[in-house]
Amino acid sequence: MPFEATIADFAAALRDPAAPPPAATRGRKGAPDGRRFAVYRNNVAVGLIGAIEARYPVTRRILGEQAFRGLARAYVQAEKPGSPVLSAYGGSFPEFIAGSCEKLGPPYLADVARLENAWVEAYHAADADAASLADLAALDAPDLAGARIQFHPAARLLRFATPAASIWASQRDGPAAPPRGQGEDVLVTRPEADVSVRILPVAGYAFAGRLRDGATLAEAAEALPDRSEFGTHLVGLVASGAVRSIIPGERP
Questions:
Q1: Are residues 199 and 164 in contact, defined by beta-carbon separation less than 8 angstroms?
Q2: Where are the alpha helices (DSSP H) in 56-203?
Q3: Of 83, 241, 245, 249, which is the most exposed, with the fewest CB atoms less than 10 Å away?
């Protein structure tokens, strides 16, 4: 059997707990050894579950050790790595939780997991300089309305139907009663190499979302109920490290 086919059979058997050991892997007696192969299979599962535990510590604390490991094991059986980089594994775990949330956890659990996943993505995002308030102040007034924003690679915008950010913050240092409240809009950034989570003010998500989608500052300001808050929202985005560059607009 070609080497590539042997490797493919080996990987397929690792993924399927019910599969027999591949015929090309033989023990001392010259026959496939199920007990020895089970060691490899178990090591793969343990490693992947460990990656999920490391990526979602607050979700794990909320759900509880036993329930979380059971959910992580089910996820590992259903979703296999698409990259050899272990830290990249588990990005779809929040949606897996959402499909099981009614049975396994509180309604905010999937949102907390989404926030943790965004934190990890921001942490591993590409390096880039962030625009400063001085860069913003350097824009002439005629250039401001037509200016556009290029977001930093680490910036993440999230909209939750639950107070997920407040729950996440309250649980990071240990169990705490989840706060009561409405949904929250969140900006995750990485200023000075430290990941930061910020709950956006009212209309902040709509304003930032329009800029992310390519709108000019003037067009994004249309999302604000009170146009006088335009400067506050813009300064907040720049100060948070969410902006990579400010591209001046063309003068009429």
A1: no
A2: 57-63, 65-78, 93-104, 109-124, 133-137, 141-144, 164-171
A3: 83
User: How far lies 212's CA from each of 227, 233, 249, in Å?
Assistant: 19, 14, 16
H or E segment to which residue 156 belongs: strand 156-159
Q: What is the CA radius of gyration of the chain?
A: 24
The answer to whether 171 touches 180, Cβ cutoff 8 Å, is no
d(CA 165, CA 180): 12
| Residue 233 backbone class (left: φ over 0; alpha: ψ -120 to 50; beta: rest) | alpha
Residues β-bridged to residue 160? none
- Both tokens assigned to 88: 């990249």
**Position of tokens 């007034």?**
141
Residue (of 75, 66, 117, 70) closest to 96 by Cα position: 75
Is 89 strand, coil or helix?
A: coil
Q: Does residue 143 contact residue 248 with C-beta atoms inside 8 Å?
A: yes
- pLDDT tens, 14-62? 666 666 666 666 666 666 666 666 666 667 788 899 999 999 999 999 9
Q: Determine which helix (DSSP H) or strand (DSSP E) holds 7, and give its type and residue range.
A: helix 3-15
Domains in the chain (CATH in brackets) are 1-105 (no CATH), 127-252 (3.90.930)
